[in-house]
Amino acid sequence: MDSQPDIIFKVWGSRGSIFAGGPERSIFGGDTTCFSIETDGRFLVVDAGSGLRALGHQLMTRPEGPPAEIDLLLTHLHIDHICGLPFFAPLISGKTIVRLWNSVYPDPETLRDALSRGLAPPIFPVDTTVWNSLEIRVPEAGARVALGPDSMARAFPLNHPDGACGWRVNSSGRVVVVASDHEHGNPSIDAQVAYYSRFSDLMVWDASYTEEELQNRRGWGHSTWQQGLKVGEKVGVNRMLMTHHLPERTDDELTDMERAAQALAHRTLFAREGLVISL
Q1: What three-state secondary structure class fits 25?
Q2: Which CATH number fits domain 7-278: 2.40.50.100, 3.60.15.10, 3.30.420.40, 3.30.930.10?
Q3: Measuring CA to CA, which residue among 138, 29, 27 is closest to residue 77?
Q4: Is 0.70 topped by the overall pTM?
Q5: In this predicted model, what pLDDT tens digit does every residue of 183-193 receive, in sequence order?
Q6: What is the spatial distance between Cα 26 and Cα 11, in angstroms, rounded to a whole number?
C-alpha cells in the first residue's frame, strides 16, 4: 500500500494582477493567487486571491465540515492577493479560526487597518468588523512559526512594490517554498530568497514576464521563468512551479512557455487551477 504523502499542495488560482476568464484560458484558469497545503494534520493557505472562494466552498461541503483552524500565509496586500477574503465561506461562517500571517507589517493592528481600508465601503460593501475575527500575526522575517507538531514556516523578504514576503514551509522532512511576487535582481534580497529556497522539494516562482517583456517592466516586481530555473538549479530545488501568469496570457502561450522550460528542466510545471502535487 502506498504511504500517505507528507504534503499535498493544490493550486486554486495562479493568475496575477486581475482575474482573467474566457475559453482561451480554461486550462490554466483565471483566478488569482491561492494555494493550499495539507500537512501534519493541518490546513494551510498561501494567499487569498480570487481562487480562495472555490477553496472555501470545497471546505464547507466536506462531509466532516471545514477545518477548525486554518493558517493563512499572506505574501502581501495587493488586491489580487486579498480579493478572495470576503468570499471565504469558513471565515464568514464563523466556524473556522483563521490566523493570518505576514512579516511585512510592524504590528497586527497596522495590518488589520490596511486590510480594512482595502476591503471596505465604498470600495467593497462589507462591514469591516468581519476582519476583527481574523487572528493576525506578524512574525519577523526568518522567525520560526510553529504550525503543528512537525511543521513550521518562515517568512523571507521579496522584491516587490509596497513590500512582500515569501514563505518556506517545512513538514515531516518536506519543504515547499512560495516566492511570488518577486523581481529578481536585488542582490541582497535575492540572496535571502536563495537561502530560504535551498534544497526545497517544491519551489513556486513568479514567472510573469518573458525576457523581452521584462526589459520595459523593471521595478514592477516580477520575474521570468528563466530566472527561476537558474535560482532553482543553484540552490538544489527538486521541482519548480511557475505562477502569477499575466491576465492576457492564453493557454496556448502558457503551454509553449511550459514546454520551453521543461526542455531545460523537466521537473518544471506552470501552475494551473486544480493541479495537485503530492510530496
Answers
A1: helix
A2: 3.60.15.10
A3: 138
A4: yes
A5: 999 999 999 99
A6: 14
